[in-house]
Amino acid sequence: MFNLKERLMLTDKGWKDLKKAIAACTLTNLSLMIPFGVTIQVFAELLKPLTGSEISWNRMWMLFGLGLVGFVLVFLASKNDYKKTYVVSYMESEATRIKVAELIRKLPMSFFNNKNLSELTTNIMGDCATAEHVLSHLIPQLFANGISLTIVCVLLSLFDWRLALTVFCTVPIAFLIIFLSRKLQRRMGEKHVAAKLDASDQVQEYLEGIKVIKSSGLLGEKFSALKDSLKLMMRRAMKMEVGTGIFVTGAQMILQAGIGLTVFFGTYLLTGGEIELVPLLMFFLIVVRIYGPILTELTLLPELFYMRVSTERMRTLFSTPIMEGDAERPVKSYDIAFENVSFSYGGEQGEEAIRDMSVTIPANAITALVGPSGSGKSTVSRLIARFWDVNKGRVTVGGVDVRTLDPEHLMSYMSFVFQDVVLFNDTVYNNIRIGNMNASEEQVRAAARAACCDEFVERLPQGYQTMLGENGSTLSGGERQRISIARALLKNAPIVLLDEATASLDPENEVLIQQAISTLIEGKTVVVIAHRLRTVAGADKIIVIDKGRAVEQGTHEELMQRHGLYERLFSIQQESLGWSV
Amino acid sequence: MKTQEGSERQPKTGSARLLELAATKKPLIIGAGFLSALASVVSFVPFVAIYYIVREIVGAYPGFDLLDSEKVIRLGWLAFGGVIGNILLYFAALMCSHLAAFGTLYQLKLNFAYHIARLPLGFHLGYGSGKLRKVMDENIEKIEGFIAHQFPDIVASFVAPVVMLVILFAFDWRFGLAALAGIAVSLFVEFRAYGNDSAKKMMDNYQASLEEMNNASVEYIRGISVVKAFRQTVFSFRSLHDTIKKYTSFVLPYTLSWENYMSLFMTLINHIYLFILPVGILIGMRATDYASFAQTFIFYLIFVPSISSVLMKIMYVSSGMMQISGGVERMDSVLNEKVLPEPQKERRSLGSDIVFEDVSFSYEGSGAPALNHVSFAAKQGQVTAIVGPSGSGKSTIAHLIPRFYDVSGGRIFVGGTDIRDMELATLMDKVSFVFQDVFLFKQSIMENIRIGNQGASDEEIIAAAKAAQCHEFIKRLPQGYHTVIGTRGVHLSGGERQRIAIARAIVKNAPILVLDEATAFADPENEHLIQKAFEKLIQNKTVIIIAHRLSTVRGADKIIVMKEGAAVEQGTHDELVRAGGKYSEMWKMYTSSLHWKMSRAGREVHV
User: Could you tell me how far CA A498 lies from the centroid of its own chain?
Assistant: First the structure.
C-alpha cells in the first residue's frame, strides 16, 4: 500500500528495529489472550452443574494456577515490548536529528538567506520529537493491534463463523468512514498547521516590531494582524477538531453497535439451539473488549495522517539540492572573473538579478562594486562565494569554475564582513575564534586588537570571557562590526568580500572601523560593496552596476571623465554629505 | 479586555492555576465536566445489561423454554443504548472542552501580547523575542491539552472509579472486595512509578535536557551561515551532535527505569480476574444456591476486564498532569512582570515642548548610569540635535521619551506635563518616532504605512508616501501599494525601508518628532531622497534628532553634546566649534574620517 520505511524516513537499522518492536507488541497482545482463554475455561467449568455433570474444583484451582503462569508470561512480554519500542524510537529520532543536522551543514548558503526555509528547519527539529512519539506509541501499537485482531478474528470464526461475522461486520464500515474522510481530515490538518505557522509568524512580528507596536499604540488586539491570525487559528483548530471528531465518533458508534448486534443475534442463535452457551459467553466476553483495540486503531489512524504533515516538511528539506564539488582542488591565484553570467533568484523564469555580466576582478587589488540599491551589487558578491549557482555563464576564481569546487572548500579562500553580523550566545572570545578554531589565544587577541575590539571588550564585565546575550544584543552596531572584522582577520583568507557597512556609526567608531578594515585588506584581493563613493574613490577598479548589468568600469578618475552614472551618483552624494537640518 | 495584574492575584500553581485560566469559559467547562461525568456513568450501562442477560440465560439454562426473550431483547437494546450514549456524551463533552480550550488560548494569547507590550523595552531585550515567542507558541499552547483533553478525563477518572466500585459491591460484596484488592495493588504500583519525588525530578530533568537540545539546534541553524563562511561546520556540528547524543543517553535509561513498574502495571490491570477467581472458587465450594452464584460469578468475570480501561485512564491523567504545569509557570512569570504604570487621572498637556529636568537613568543590571542628571529643553518648532560617541546616552534619550523605560530620577515633560502623568495613548499621539532599525511588518506597504495612523484613508497614505519619496519605488513593485513585504522577489533596500518609516511618521502627523538619524544603510541616491523626505517631515515640528553624522546637524537650532551619560555642551554648531571642547574634537575626527579611502599605499586620489 505504501512504503512505510520511506514514509517515516527510517534508517535500515531503524526499520529492522521497528519491525522487531511491532513483533514484540504483537506478542504482548497475543499473551493477553491467556487470561481470556482461562476465563472461558472457567465459564465452561462453572456451567457444568447446570447441565447435570459435576464441577471439578481441582480443575478450577488448576485454571487459577494457569492464570498465574499467564500473568508471568504477560509481564515478560510487556517488559520486552516496552524496551523494544522505546529504544527504537529514541535511537531513531536521534539518528534523524543527526541526519537533519548533517544535511543542514551541507545545504547551500542560499538556503539560509530564505527566512521561511530556515524557520522550517527549526520546526523540523521539533518534528523529530513528534516522530519520537509516533514511533514509540503509534506505529508499533497500530500494527500489533492489526495483526492480533486478525488472529482473534480467525480464531473466533473457528468457533462460530456467524457470530464472528456479527462481531466484526461493523469494522469495515467504521474503517471505510475513516478512510473516506481521510482527504478531508488531511486538508483540515494542513490548513490548521498553516494557520498555526502563520500565527507564529505574526507573534514573531509582533515581538520583533515591539518598538513600533509600542510607539504606535497597537498593543495586543489592536494589532489586527496578530488578532486576526490568532482568531483564524482558533477557528481552524475548532473546525479540525469538530470535523475529525464527527467522523471518528460516527465510526465509533457504528463500530460499537456490534455489541448490540452480538447480543441480539447470539440470543437468537442460542434459543434456536444453534450455539452452545459457553461459546456465546465467550463472544459476550470478547465483544465488550474487542472494540477497545479497534477503537485505538481508529483514533491512531487520523493521528498518523496528521503526522504526515510534519514528515512532508522533512521531505521538503531532504529534497533540497545540496551543492557539491571538489574539496581538494587548490585555487592557485585569486583573480575573479564573470563570464556572461545571468542569474535570477527565482530560478530560470524569475526576473534576472544579473544580466549577461562579464567582468574581471584582479587579484591583490581593491575592486569596488557601486550602483543604486537593488542594482545587483550584493548578488555579485554572493555569486563569487557560491551562495547561489548562476543560471547562465560561469564565475571563476583563479580560472576555476566555482561550481566545480566544494562550497566549503571555496569558502576557505574567502573572508566576509557583512552588514548583518550573527553573534553566538557564547563568550566574546569564542565569537571571535569562530574565524579560526585553531588559533592560539595570542592570535585571537591580536586579531581583536587589530580590529579595534580591545577597547570595548576591556570595558565588559568579564572582558573576553563575557557572555553575549541572544545574538549579542548587548553590543552596539559598531562593536558587532568590529567583532566580525576580527573574525575575518583571524581567518586570514586571501580574498576579502566586504560590505562597506560603516552604517550608523558615530565618528569615533567609524575611525576605528576604518583602521580595522585597512589592516584587514592589506595584501588581499578585495571586493567591496560600496555605499559611500568617496570611500572607494581610491580603489584599483570600480565596477558600476545598474539593473544587473556592469555599465561602467575603471578607476575613479576615468569614470569621472566619462560623465556617466558614476559621476552622477558621486555628485549627488557630495551634495547630500553637505546636507543639514 | 481583562488584563492580569500579577501583583494583585493570589498566585496559584499547577492544575489549580490551569482551572483558573479555563474558568474564563465557565459554561463550556462546566458543560464539558458534566457531560464527561455522565458519559462515564453511562459507559457502565452495557455491563449491567449484560449481567441481567446472563442472569436470564443462565437461569433458564440448559432449556430455553422459560427464557423471557422479550426481556433479553430489551436488555440488548439497553446495552446498545449505553454504548451509543457513552460515545455521544463523551463526544459532546470533548466538543465543549475543545471550544473552551481554543477560546481560552485565543484570549490568553491576546492578553499576553497586550501585557508584554506594556512592559519596559528592557524586558524585551533581556528576555529575547525567541523565548517570548516560545511562551506564546508552545507553553500557552500546552494549556489546550489540559482543557480540551485532560480536564474531561480528570472528571471521568474521578467519576468512573466511584461508579465502578458501586457496581462491584452492589452484586456481591465478597467479589467486590477481591476486585478492590486487585485495583489497590495496581494503583500502588502506579504510584510507586509516578508518585514519588524522584520521578518528578526525573521528569524535570527530562524536560530540561529536551530544552537544551532544542536550544542547541536553534542556535546551530541560526548561526549556520556564519559557521559555513568560516568553515567551522564540523566544529559546530560536533557540538550539536554531542547534545543530541547526550539527550538520548539521558532519556533512554530514564525511560527504561520505568520498565518494570509499567510492565507490572499493565500486567496487573489485565489480571484482576486472578483476584476474584480464588474467591469465586472458595464461595462456590460452599454455595447453597449454585445457580445464582454462577450468575454472579460469570458477571464479575465479564466485568473485571473493563476495570483496566478505567485504570489506564487514571494513569494517563496522572502522567499528563506532571508535564503540564511547567508551561503555565513560564507564562505567569512573564505576566507577573510589572508593567509601566499609567496614571489614574490624566493631566492635560499643552504645547509640544520637550523638557528633560535633571533626568537620570540606569539600565537594569548595569551599574553605571546611562544618563546622569541630564537637563535640556527642546523648543516647539525647533530642531534639537543630540550628538556624542556611542554609549554616551544618545539613544537612551530617544528611548525615554516614548516611555520604553521610565526614568530613575528627574522628570521628562511633554507640553508641560510629566509623561508619567499622561496616558500612554495620548503620549504616543503627540510623538512620532523614526528609529534606525526600521521594522516592516509582513503586510502590504499600504498597511505598513497605516501603522502610523490607523484612521488614515488610502489617499492620505499615498500622499504621505509621495512626501516621503516612496511613491516612485512603490509604484515599481509588482502590486504597488498592495505588495506584501517579505513575499518572494520583494526586496526593499535599507533606504527604501527608511522612507517608509518616514511616511509612517508623516501620516501620523504628530507635533513632536523623535528621529534617530538614519541615513544609515542608504546608497547615495537613496540618501538624497531620504534627506528630501526629512525636510518635509520636520516642518513646523518639535524635532529631536539623534545624529550620527555631524554634518547633518550643523544647521540645528541647538546641539546637545553627550558624553558618558552627561550633557557636556549645548549650543549651535558655530558656538560649539568655537568653544573648542568635546564637540570641536568630534568635528575634527569626523572631517578626517571623511577623507579615509580604501586604497593601496601609494595610490593617491584627489576628490
Answer: 31
The pLDDT tens digits of the residues spanning B137-155 come to 878 887 888 888 888 888 8
Does B439 reach chain A within 8 Å, measured CB to CB?
A: yes
Of A67, A267, A487, the CB nearest to B69: A267
| In a domain? residue B570 | yes
Q: Is residue B341 part of a domain?
A: no
Do B123 and B208 lie in a common domain? yes
- Rounded Cα distance between A42 and A59, Å, is 9
The Cα B299–Cα B301 span in angstroms is 5
CATH for B467: 3.40.50.300
**pLDDT score of B322:** 66
CA atoms within 13 A on the CB side of B567: 19
Q: Distance between CA A361 and CA A367 in Å, rounded?
A: 6
Q: Give the rounded percent of residues in chain A with a pLDDT score beyond 90.
A: 22
Residue B196 shares a structural domain with residue B76: yes
Please determine, for residue B503, whether its predicted confidence score (pLDDT) is greater than 60. yes
- B116 is a domain residue: yes
Mean pLDDT of B353-357: 93
Q: Are residues B301 and B413 in the same domain?
A: no
Query: Which of B50-64, B287-301, B453-467 has the lowest average pLDDT?
Result: B50-64
Contact B260, B254 (CB under 8 A): no
Shared domain for B286 and B428, answered yes or no, is no
| C-alpha–C-alpha distance, residues A29 and A149, integer Å | 9
Which residue segment(s) compose the domain that B367 sits in? 354-595
Residue B594 identity (one-letter amino acid): L
Q: Residue A61: CB partners within 8 Å, gap ≥ 6?
A: B281
CB contact under 8 A, A75 and B267: yes
In angstroms, what is the C-alpha Rg of chain B?
Answer: 36
Q: Which residues of chain A are modeled with pLDDT < 70?
A: 1-4, 7-9, 113-122, 124, 302, 305-306, 309, 347-350, 469-474, 500-508, 577-581
d(CA B36, CA B86): 9
C-alpha cell at A108: 547551500
The distance of B424 to chain A (nearest Cα, Å) reads 8
Q: What mean pLDDT value characterizes chain B?
A: 83
Question: Tell me, what CATH number does B284's domain have?
Answer: 1.20.1560.10
Please count the helices (runs of H) and the strands (runs of E) in chain B. Answer: 24, 10
Same domain, yes or no, for B277 and B367? no
Give, for B431, the enclosing helix (H) or strand (E).
Answer: strand B431-434
pTM: 0.74
Q: Which of residues 443-462 of A touch B (CB under 8 A)?
A: none
Q: Is the peptide bond before B62 cis (omega within 30 degrees of 0)?
A: yes
- CB contact, 8 Å: B525 with chain A? yes
- Residues B248 and B370 grouped into a single domain: no
More confident call, B16 vs B558: B558
Q: Quick one: average pLDDT of B555-584?
A: 91
Nearest by Cα to A567 from A557, A579, A580: A557
Q: Which residue of A has its CA nearest to B258?
A: A82
- For residue B43, being part of any structural domain is answered with yes
- Shared domain check, B380 and B330: no
**What is the model's pLDDT at position A223?**
85
Which pLDDT belongs to residue B9? 46
CA distance B136 to A56: 67
CB contact A539 to B (< 8 Å): yes
| Cα distance between residue B599 and residue A332, in whole Å | 24
* Single residue among B335, B364, B392 that ends a domain in this structure: B335
**Across the interface, do A86 and B285 touch by the CB < 8 Å criterion?**
no
Q: Do the Cβ atoms of B143 and B320 come closer than 8 Å?
A: no
B522: closest chain A residue by CA? A531
How many domains is chain B partitioned into structurally? 2
The residue among B335, B369, B388 that closes a domain is B335
Same domain, B366 and B236: no
